[in-house]
Amino acid sequence: MKKNILITGTSSGVGLAASILLAKNNYKVYATMRNLKKSTVLKEAIAKDNLDIEILELDVTKYDTIEHAVNMIVEKDGKIDVLLNNAGAGFAKTLEQTSLDQIDWITDVNYKGVVITTKAVLPIMRKMNSGHIINITSIGGLVGQPFNELYCGAKFAVEGFTEALATYVAKPFNINFSLIEPGGIATEFMNNAITKTVDEKGEMVTGEYAPIFTKYLEGAKSRAGSGTASPYQTPEEIAAIILDTINAKNPPLRVRTSEWAENMTALKVKADPDGTKLVNQVIDYFL
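Above: the chain's sequence. Below: its structure in token form.
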């Protein structure tokens, strides 16, 4: 039987590219998204190459939709081999100018969604005594960046959540955990992040932070067009790294996806690049 994979956030970007690539590499893909009206591009790819992909509705902020999708997959296949927690959203704004609703939203989409989707899938993998849970984070999960404190905070949380699970779930139940850490992805993600910085009239937020923020945006746009020195990779490049991570005999805990990402995080990860040493040290200390 084919290995199957549940992927969140597949209407565009990395989720879309990963769904197509994994299906082309003999995986049964359950591609999920919050809004099924955004499935047109994926449906066209499925039809063009006769891909083994089933599209399901799943909103990572609503546990009932997660549970429903997971139950459907288990009823059909009796298993879930890989979970790719990909759904997420960018956000760049000062804390002072962020509403409480926005704080809830960025946390729910980027952190809580990973937690509750993992919660739904983990018992199935544990009973199977096998599985692989892959969480898409960012170098923002390792290095705090200006105007990204809420996004980075959520991604730092995913990093800690995943690292902690790996210390007591991985070896006893044969479940691998991996974190994919891009420097940036050349999709609508950055544009969506920037739109979150404007007010309801479409005007850039002003105030004492404005000159600093303008400099930040200019830098982001400059880096996006800087060729080989750019932190931004294509969704297809990230998808290829995801495939390699899934197929690895001993999947690493942490995977940076570019030389730029490695350089940006070097001070944090030099002693333990893939996170394996620290996890083993924690196991030795606590268990």
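The beta strands are 4-7, 28-33, 53-57, 82-85, 131-136, 175-181, 184-185, 232-233, 254-256.
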